Amino acid sequence: TLLLVAGLTTVWTRRGRRQVPEPPSAYPGAWQGWLYPVALVALLPSLLASVTGLAGQLLSLLPFGAATDILNPLLDALYDNNPIRLLRGGLGVAAVGVAWRLSRLGRLAEAGVLGAFAVPSILRVVALLPGFEGLRDATPEAMGLIASVVVLLIGILLAIQGRLTRHRAESMLTVLLLVVLYPHRNFLGDPTSTLLAFSAPLMLLFASTWRVLTGADFTRKGSPGFPQPTRVLLYLANSLVTTTLLAFIILARASGTGLDTSLVWGVVGDDWLGEPLFVMGLVAGLWLGLSSESGYRTRQVEPSSGASTATH
Prior knowledge:
Elements: H1 2-15, H2 27-32, H3 35-61, H4 65-80, H5 83-104, H6 108-126, H7 140-161, H8 166-181, H9 185-189, H10 191-195, H11 200-214, H12 228-251, H13 262-290, H14 293-311
Helix pairs in contact: 1-5, 1-6, 1-13, 3-4, 3-5, 3-13, 5-6, 6-13, 7-8, 7-13, 8-13, 11-12
């Protein structure tokens, strides 16, 4: 996975006429604008299951028995073939196409993180084929272990040769920190949940309130395809649905039961939205750790030189 993401990053960098990719710090902000579209796609299988289940119940009450006999086997065949994984694979292919265009426009951070999302998405579909089951073992923890071993060996070699500069050391240290902190990402992302774990309703209420108060950064700007009013309305609608479901779960005393799907969607969000950032951070850190000092300076100087040219 790391090699494929690095290969795509090479393509994006060359198309953007750059020598090195963006640093790891650039990817969270670039990925933020794509979180809602990807999350909406992740919800489609559940929405489809609800709609088709309701349609089947309605058809069974009406004189359309033959229709239900045809619909049910089709739905069973669809769900038996892991539709979520197939949907994510198709989204990964689309992400490669979008990243191809963005890289030409110089938006390398967005292209990079979309490529990091596309590679594991497509590989998970390939893993369904006979003989490729081993691709399922490409977990973020395994990739982090490989990256940490590589960066330590390279760092020792560069230090022996006297070529371990400050910029290279910073990039390699970033990789090591990512590997060390990644297993603790849930606590770092929401430490209050751990402190309030003695009360599940209070924990959910506090976490939801904190997210509503601090998670509206993407509504402060807009784009032609995703204008600011649409972002604000989407954020308010998402907050309303979240608080409504939370109130229902608490009032129904259903926390921790099958009705409380927060854990399931937390895993889906971590897999779909969190893993690309981690993988891209590893690739960018390794790349910048191996790049020459001149390449690093070129990346730093390019924006200011372009702005200077535009000013003149």
